[in-house]
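Human: I wish I could look at a protein chain and see how it folds. This is the protein in question:
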Amino acid sequence: MAGRDLRTLFSSNDRSIAADEAFTNRQAQWRAVAAGIAEHVRHVIRADLDVEDLEAPRRNVLVFHGVGGIGKSTLSRKIEASLTSSEYRPVQWESPSHPEERTLPVRIDLRRAAGMDFERVILTVRLAVAALGRPMPAFDLALRRYWEHNHPGEPIEDYLRRGGLLSRFSAAAALPQQMQSALSDVAQALLLPGTVGSALGHGAGALIKALRERRQSVRALAGCSRLADLLEAEPDLEALSFYPHLLAWDLAQLPARRSAVPVILLDTFEDTGDRTHRDFERLLQRIVWLMPNAFFVVTGRNRLQWAETSLEGQLDWVGPNAWPGLVSGEAAYTQSDVSGRQILIGDFSPEDCEDYLTRRLSRDGQPLIDEPVRRIIAERSHGLPLYLDLSIMRYLELRRGGRQPQVTDFDHGFPALITRTLSDLTAEERHVLRSVSLLSAFSVPLATKVAGMDHDAPALRLIERPFVRESPSGAWPFHIHDLIRSAIRNTEDGADDRWSQQDWQRAAHRAFHALEAEWRQDTRRDRTVLLGCLQQGLVLARDFGLDLDWLGDASFQYVADSVGEPLVLPAASDTSPDGPQTAANALVEALSAITRRQHEHRGRTARRLSAVLASGLLPDELVELVTYYLAKAQRDLGLTDESRRGMQRVASAGGRLASAAGRGLAHLSRLSGDFPAAMDAAGRLGWEGRHQRVLGDVWWVQGDMDRAAAAYRAARSEAEQNGAVGETAMSQAHLAFAVAFTDPVQADDELDLADRLLSPLSLRSTELTARIASLVRDAGYAADVPDRATVLFAEIGVSGVSYAAAKLQLALCFHHAVLDAHDELAAGIALLRELTHSGDYAYYVEIAHFMAGLPLPPGSARARWIEGEPRTRERWRNVVMTRRDRLGGAR
C-alpha cells in the first residue's frame, strides 16, 4: 500500500537509486480523521439513531481542501490504507481511538481521467459493503431492478469485471450471489413461481403491494418505509441517487457483531463540476445525506459550500442548519471541537520538506540529493509538495545530462505550477488571479479595480480558492500563496490565454493607480493603509519602470510622524553594487535607510542616504527629504557642521520640511550651548516645527524642570490633537525624563505611559531617552544604576547615537552627585568631557559641576544660559539637594 514511486523509478537507468513514495507528517489531519470517526461511531451506536430521519442535521462529513499539489490525494490514499490495516499506517500516526465498531474504508477517485461516473460510485460503495458477507436486501432489490432496466442482457458481474472493480475488492465476486440471495428470499416469501427475475419482473407489483400492506411474509423488508416508493419509481439515474437510503437502512439492521461503519473517501472533489454545473455534486450530496451512518472524508481544492443558503435550488440540502460543521469560518478542527469539519491542508514545514527530500531518493540508505541542494529546494518550495516533486524530476533530468546538479540549477520556475493552479478557473478568474499576483495583499474591491472589471463576481469566486489565504492583519485581508504568486509572475506561461509583456505592463499601471485611489480615499489616514499602498506601489514602480507620481506625497506622509515602521520590500532583480539604477530604486533605498536608522548604526544610515543623493535620480522634492534625514544622521554622529549645512539647505528651500529643518537648526544651536538662539528659533517654528518640544529641550538643561515639563505636556497635547502618534510618544518620553529629576514617584507613571506609547512603534533614540529617564528616577536610590548604565552604554554604541552617550553619562553624574561620591563623580566628569570634546553638548560638563557645587576649571567653555550661569547653577544644585533630602527621608 505504501507503494513505489514509479514515475521516479522510470526516470533513471541507475538501479541503485531507491525511489520510494515518501509521505511526511500530516499528523494533525490524521488526528482530525480519527477524532471525526470516533465521534461518528459514538453517534451511530446510539440506540435512538434513526437512519430514516431525513431532517436531522448531518455531521458525517470531513473536508480537507487545499491548493493543487499540496498532497490531498496522497493523504486520502494514506487514510484509506491506515484504516484498512495498521501495517500501512505511517509510523508518525497514532492508532485511532474510536470504539470497537470496525470501519470499512473505501476511496473513490473522482478525477475526470479516472472515468468515475455516478453509477460506478454507487457500485463501488456496494462492493465495499460486500466485505461484510451479508446481503443488503432492500438496496439489492432496487439495484437489481435498476440494472435490468438500464443494462438489459448484461450480467452485473461482467460489467464489474470489465470495469476493473472485481479485482479491486476481494469480496466483489460475492456481490452477485448476495443480490441473488436477497431476491430469492423475496420470491420465496411471496410464493412466486419464478426465479429471481420474476421477483423484479412480473412480481414487482406483488412485492410493492405486500410492502405497502406490511404483510408478515415480507416483514424483514416492511420496516424500510420508503422501499416501496423507490421500487415503484422509474429506475433511472435520479432514482439510483436515492438508493443509498436503502443501503443505510440495510446496514442499520445488521447485528452488532457483523456491523461496520463505512468510511467513504471522495477524492478530487473539484472534478465533479463547477459553481454553475452541480449535477454530479447534487447526486454525491444525496449519498452523504442519505447515509447518516457512514462517514465521508472529502478531499479537493475547494471548500464545500453546502452550508450556504445561496445554493438553494442547486442542491437538495443546504444551509447552516443542515450542515452545521461546514459553516464558513469553522475551518479549525480539534478533538475537543468536532463541529468544524472544513480543514485547509497546510504547507509542509521546513523540517517536513527536508524529510521528504531525504527519503524520496536514496542510495545505500543515504539521501541522493545533497544537503545544500535539498535546502534550496525546500526554501523555494514554500512548503508546497508539488514543487518538491517537480524539483526531484528536474534533479534526475539533470543527472541524465551527465552532471551533478548544483544549487544554481534550482533557481527555476515550473510551468506545471501554473497549469495546476489555472486548471479549474474560469477565464475571468484567471484574469483576476494574474492581476492580483502583482500585489502582496488585496481586497475584493481592489482586485476588481486592478483587473479593470466593473463587477466583483470573479474576485469573490477567486478568494474562495485554497491558494488565496486570508489574514486579519494588514490593510487588505487576502494574499496568494507565495510560491504560486511567484510562479505566475516569473514562470513562462503556456496557457492559451497567457499574457504578453504589454498585458503585464497595463496591469501594473492599473494596480499602481488603484493603490493611489485606496490611499487618497483613506480619510482616516490609517497608517496600515498608507504602509500597504506605499510598499506595494514602490515595488510596482521599481519592477515596471513607472514614474514615482503619487509615491512622493505618500513618502512624505510616511516619514512625517517618525513612527518608522520598516518597509519590507522584496529584492530587486536589477540591483547593482554601484547603487540604485532607477528613481523607484533610489526612493526604496532612501525610505529603507530612513526607517532602518532606528535599528542600525547612524554611520550606515548616512552612507546609504549619501549614495542616494549621489545617484541624482530623485526629483527635487524628494532630494529635500533625503537631505533632511542625512542631516539628522550627521547630527547624531556628531558631524555638526555637515548637519548644519544640510538643514540650512532644506530650510532655505521653503519646502515641506522647512519647519522640520528649522527645528533641526534650533537643535544644533542648543547642542552648541547657544540657548538664546535656540529659544528664538523655537518661537518661529509653530506646531509643524514641534516648537513646544524644542522649548522643553532648552528648559530642562537650564535646570528648570517645571517649565520643561509644561512644554513637553503641551507638545504631547498638540501631537495628540494632530493624531501624530510618534510625536506623542517622543514628547512623553522627554516629559518622563524631565520629571524624573524632581519627582521620582510621578516619573513612574510618566515612564509607564511612555512605554505604552512606544511599544507599537520603532523609535530607537526615544526608547534610549526613556531608559535614561529610568536611571535618573532611580539615581541615589538604586545601587545597580552604574551596572544598568554600562549595559545601556553598549547598546548606544551599537546604535551610533552619540548624543545619547553624553546624556547617559550626565545621568550617571547626577547619581554620583546625589550620593556625594567624589571619586566616582570626578571620573564621571572626566568621561563626560571626553564624550563632548567636539564642543557639542559641552555644557553637560558645566551641568555636572553645577550639580556637585564645584567650580568650573579655568578655561572651560561657557554656554549661553537663558537666565545666566549663577541662576542655572543654583537650579541644578537644588535638584541634587532635593533628591538628597528625599533619600534621607526614605532611609
Q: What stands out?
A: The CA atoms of residues 815 and 821 lie 9 Å apart. Residues 6-25+348-412 form one domain.
